């Protein structure tokens, strides 16, 4: 059986489906991934200067400006056929959980009802000191290296920080627990557009396979097969997902 037909079959028979997405699913919406050669954000920017709590405290305007620049790009991006297919799958599967490492809101805008953001959201900044949540709706108009002073908390005057999980920080406990619970007895685990190098999210694939789920990768790069029931579908999310989901 062709791999795509095998994957369709596994998905249509599954009682419980878990989807994990990474930056690759938003690539066809024009959003840069992190590690793709040439275009990846971490090929062009230094994460130690932009994506750690220490970096933020060292130069808040540099970091806040960078995330505001990315927020501006994300506000202009539109969900693609891959996001739309994931939203349809949520409607069709008897039980479905969507876990994303992405800080964009393209799954929500494609119609996904429940999205667990394992790495936070660029649209949900909060006070670094008291934790109070903020939301800024105005679209910034920035160039990529432009520094912007972050706003201060109205209540404690602390610095407001981007709502993303940085290197060296813990993933949000509620989302992580939801992820482990979903993976525990899933039948199919779809890993879409992720390089699988950032833990603990990357470890979910192994957990799913160890407890007997079929693992299906969707990625333009062929993925190594490590488990008994594991398929690597080679192609983009926007091409492959509509073929897997009616
Ligand atoms: P990466 O940039 O590490 O990996 C993107 C993956 O998407 C690669 O495997 C690409 O081959 C694949 N890809 C590229 N275009 C694609 C397409 N059109 N369709 C499907 N796949 C495609 O991104 P992530 O795995 O998401 O962390 O990175 C994990 C984390 O590292 C991110 O959440 C971020 C980063 O540091 C935080 O922000 C905390």
Q: What can you see in these coordinates?
A:
The chain is an alpha/beta fold and 246 residues long. The chain is built from ten helices and eight strands. The strands form two sheets. A six-stranded parallel sheet has the order 3-2-1-6-7-8, with helices on both faces. Strand 6, helix 9 (203-210) and strand 7 form a beta-alpha-beta unit. Helix 6 (81-92) packs parallel to helix 10. It is elongated and about 60 Å long. The site of 2'-O-acetyl adenosine-5-diphosphoribose has 25 residues, from strand 7.
Shape: elongated
Rg value: 18 Å
Q: Mean pLDDT, rounded to whole units?
A: 96
Question: What is the rounded distance between the termini?
Answer: 19 Å
The proportion of residues forming helix, as a percent range, comes to: 25-40%
Report the portion of residues in β strands.
5-15%
**What strand line-up does the widest sheet have?**
3-2-1-6-7-8
User: How many helical elements?
Assistant: 10
Element-by-element helix/strand order: HEHHHHHEHEEEHEHEEH
* Small-molecule components bound: 2'-O-acetyl adenosine-5-diphosphoribose
Secondary structure tally: strands? 8
**Mind summarizing the main beta sheet?**
6 strands, parallel
Estimated structural class: alpha/beta
Low-confidence stretches: none
Record keyword descriptors for this entry:
binds 2'-O-acetyl adenosine-5-diphosphoribose; alpha/beta; single chain
SSE topology:
Elements: H1 3-13, E1 16-21, H2 41-44, H3 47-50, H4 53-58, H5 60-76, H6 81-92, E2 95-100, H7 106-110, E3 116-117, E4 126-127, E5 160-161, H8 173-184, E6 188-192, H9 203-210, E7 214-219, E8 230-234, H10 237-244
Parallel strand pairs: 1-2, 1-6, 2-3, 6-7, 7-8
Antiparallel strand pairs: 4-5
The structure holds 2'-O-acetyl adenosine-5-diphosphoribose.
2'-O-acetyl adenosine-5-diphosphoribose binds at residues 22-25, 27-28, 33-36, 40, 101, 119, 164-165, 193-195, 198, 218-221, 236-237.
């Amino acid at each position: 059986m062709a791999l795509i037909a095998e994957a369709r079959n596994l998905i249509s028979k599954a009682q419980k489906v878990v989807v994990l997405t990474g930056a690759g699913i938003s690539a066809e919406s024009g959003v840069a991934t992190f590690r793709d050669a040439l275009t990846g954000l971490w090929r062009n920017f230094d994460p130690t200067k932009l994506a750690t709590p220490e970096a933020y405290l060292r130069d808040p305007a540099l970091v806040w400006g960078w995330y505001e620049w990315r927020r501006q790009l994300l506000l202009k991006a539109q969900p693609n056929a891959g996001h739309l297919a994931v939203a349809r799958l949520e409607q069709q599967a008897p039980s479905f959980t969507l876990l994303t490492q992405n800080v964009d809101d393209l799954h929500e805008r494609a119609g996904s009802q429940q999205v667990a953001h394992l790495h936070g959201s660029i649209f949900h900044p909060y006070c670094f000191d008291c934790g109070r949540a903020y939301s800024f709706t105005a679209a910034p108009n920035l160039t990529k290296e432009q520094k912007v002073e972050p706003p201060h908390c109205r209540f404690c005057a602390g610095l407001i920080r981007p709502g993303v999980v940085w290197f060296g920080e813990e993933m949000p406990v509620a989302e992580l627990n939801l992820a482990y619970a979903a993976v525990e007895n899933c039948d199919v685990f779809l890993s879409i557009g992720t390089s699988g190098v950032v833990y603990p999210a990357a470890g979910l694939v192994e957990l799913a396979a160890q407890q007997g789920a079929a693992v299906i990768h969707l990625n333009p790069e062929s993925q190594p097969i490590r488990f008994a029931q594991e398929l690597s579908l080679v192609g983009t999310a926007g091409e492959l997902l509509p073929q897997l989901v009616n």
